[in-house]
Write a structure and sequence with these properties.
This protein is 25% helix and 37% strand. It is of the alpha+beta class. The chain binds biotin.
Length: 243
Amino acid sequence: MKIIKLNAIDSTNTYLKQLAKETQLPNPTIVVAKRQFAGRGQMGNGWLSKEGQSLTFSVFQAFDKLQIERQFWVSMAVSLAILKALQSLNVPKLSIKWPNDILSANKKIGGILIENVLEGSNVKHAIIGIGLNVNDTDFTKLPQASSLKLQTGENFQLEEVLDTILKNVFKNLKNLSAADFSEMKRNYENNLFRKEKVSVFETPERLRFNGIITGVSDIGELLVETENDPLQKFQMKEVKLIY
Ligand code: BTN
């Protein structure tokens, strides 16, 4: 395992992706940045973080024959690992907002951006970027966001939180090819935000509709029961949960 510590970088994901292109990286390799000035989030969004108060890091993980259809396994394994790590730090009311936002008491405290590099029908390696709000307290511009400190009332040592998360992430990723998929999926679904509750969804055309999240498909689509269809499947760009 190799850890690269940077003072400042545009995005740890972009940096690590480029490094993986140019060199043969040890598996796994981690890049941690104190300050990230152009952090990237899902769906082309940005990711804001404050120096010294939050964690921004990326993990390079190579896989041995992980089929493309199983990309979602990585997403589940990583979100469940973060949940377990945060549970051990006594962060309350944790859940996963599909596909992999980490919530505490319905507020987003962490996000994951996974970028897979494919080779033939397999995932060769993944760049797994994790952003976690740790000791930040000012979210006036992001009312649905929060931090470990706000949720627990405690200050955390960034290094300690990072260490706990990495341990759990590697434990889950190491066992990924041998993992019991149904058990992992059950665990993921049991922690899914707003599962079995009537929720409001929005399409990219801004059409809103009601539905009930019933789970996820084997390839990670969100399963929603709607008035017209008891088993509607959505991919990431197709729907947004309004909450
Ligand atoms: C999201 O919720 O939209 C995903 C956010 C992921 C942010 C992390 S911070 C470290 C890594 N580098 C990036 O540029 N993004 C990820």
